[in-house]
Amino acid sequence: MAETARHPEPRYGNRPTMKDVAARAGVGLKTVSRVVNSEPGVTPDTERRVQEAIDALGFRRNDSARVLRKGRTASIGLVLEDLADPFYGPLSRAVEEVARAHGALLINGSSAEDPEREQELVLALCARRVDGLIVIPAGDDHRYLEQEIKAGIATVFVDRPGRIDADMVLSDSFGGARQGVAHLIAHGHRRIGFIGDQPRIHTATERLRGYHAAMTDAGITVEDSWVSLGSTDPDRVRLAAETMLSAPEPVTALFSGNNRVTVTAVRVLAGRERPVALVGFDDIELADLLGITVISQDAAAVGRTAAEHLFRRLDGADHAPARVELPTRLIPRGSGELRPS
Amino acid sequence: MAETARHPEPRYGNRPTMKDVAARAGVGLKTVSRVVNSEPGVTPDTERRVQEAIDALGFRRNDSARVLRKGRTASIGLVLEDLADPFYGPLSRAVEEVARAHGALLINGSSAEDPEREQELVLALCARRVDGLIVIPAGDDHRYLEQEIKAGIATVFVDRPGRIDADMVLSDSFGGARQGVAHLIAHGHRRIGFIGDQPRIHTATERLRGYHAAMTDAGITVEDSWVSLGSTDPDRVRLAAETMLSAPEPVTALFSGNNRVTVTAVRVLAGRERPVALVGFDDIELADLLGITVISQDAAAVGRTAAEHLFRRLDGADHAPARVELPTRLIPRGSGELRPS
DNA sequence: GTGAAAGCGCTAACAG
DNA sequence: CTGTTAGCGCTTTCAC
């Protein structure tokens, strides 16, 4: 086991390189490269000999070197809030499928809704020179990214606009919330509560705006106590809901701002005697059986669209940054059609 | 915009390199490297000048080159079945958290339960020289991986054993299923149906084995028509369930082999007049409100454990491959406590 | 405290 | 059809 003094720790477990393969096959380095990359200009016989050496040695091309030379990593980064959130699973999978179709791998990171962590992740991805980046912004200051984008890392913002000039794929939060609240109003409600995510988050405020729009359309004056924005922590949401429902003049319906809020709201309502109407933003698995009326957005479509835009950029498209807004859909299942008691 | 003839396409959008920074700061290349990597031996004054050049140029270290030199990519690969499956979201997130704590990024890929695609993914990850690999096997032949493992890519198999000698983290599928079926038997059922995933999948057969064990323990002879293995496609599961429930001597209870099967089973049962008992493997969001009794496995714990094992290997542990089996937990919520009608 | 030189493993360019 | 050379941007080594 005599190792050279220069490399006391064998790299990559001493994997064979193209040079080793070339030596064993008795050909030049470039010929091996040709075989490995299926480039033309190698006789079947030479190819066979090279292939044998590859198999015998267990050679596997080192993509790090390749990347360094070619300048493309064939990988894209996806920074989202939380991979464990059922909304982001399908989104992520859709991005992955598109990436796969383009021969790229997906590096995934969760920001946990922390702007610093988002930046840290994005910059790490940039240092890896991912070809492109799909970001669901946690923070609202993306100046740190401008440099990177200018330097050539294609970027698409998803779900929330990124405050800088780049492609964007969003769901129609405003319109969806407005429709959902209008639906409750149409069923006789006037005292409607809104429980949403932190106001720092764009979708949260957009949905709140939709709520206000629907209320205003109906000539209803919103009382402060009907609105609660904050973390989606179950305890926080539970308290907010209980408070609205136990007030002297309680709300008769709730609009929940996203899937995390909805599941807690459903649990709270399940524990109460008087039925309270509910419409939630985002569909949830088994919501059909529970009869939960929702505003559904297609997470997979969002992811797919974003990824397609990204690869269009990578393939050279250089039109002005596009802003795509995907429609939402109201799915009535019972909870949103309850009348005030 | 006169570019050199050799590089018609600017790499990385012509990003500055350490050399550029060095030139601008009027120092040597190595000094820049020292500053970038916070190595000691640089005067505060020099450091400041270098830092200024870095900021002015918008320099960001190219990790591809670093990786090539250092032999470690600070990234790990996770190959699972489907990122969109609610079981894998939390698992993936848990892996990511551990990776993050070790300064590594996560490259994620879905095999879609296709052995070829699994292999393709794994080999792509190996070519990138990920430091480690967590694989939820789709296929059952992993000889292609032996070479890679020998070459130094630490590997942990998750959820299903990988048929080769490596670390493994599993849930107790056999024990969990046995307990779940025994629970149904304890509530008076004898004609119990089992609907599971494809027999190619290890957990599917383990859970079936658990079913048989519980039935045997109770002296019940299982009839062929009570067992159905196959894809988790809703149509397939629906048909299987309907068939068992509509037989001349119908089953009075169902055990569903995973979360995908359970959601369809719940829908089928919801549409029937006579109540049928159900216990499902894997917990599901809102299952509490629907009163679904489940055998719960902690996806996050599985992911965390696997990742911790992996990094222990990467940090030099070289004990014999370990096999960890995580316990499951029966959560009675009503559907499993129904008596035969 | 600092820097020049070599080289990681590969691909681009160019000769033969 | 094949091989040689240079160099991607960084870290390592070693000399100053």
From TrEMBL, chains A, B:
It comes from Streptomyces laculatispora. GO terms for molecular function: DNA binding. Residues 16-70 form the HTH lacI-type domain. SMART domains: HTH_LACI (SM00354). PANTHER family: HTH-TYPE TRANSCRIPTIONAL REGULATOR GALS, LACI-RELATED TRANSCRIPTIONAL REPRESSOR. Keywords: DNA-binding, Transcription, Transcription regulation. Pfam families: LacI, Peripla_BP_1. The keyword Heme does not apply. It comes from the Bacteria. This is LacI family DNA-binding transcriptional regulator. The keyword Disulfide bond does not apply. SUPFAM superfamilies: lambda repressor-like DNA-binding domains, Periplasmic binding protein-like I.
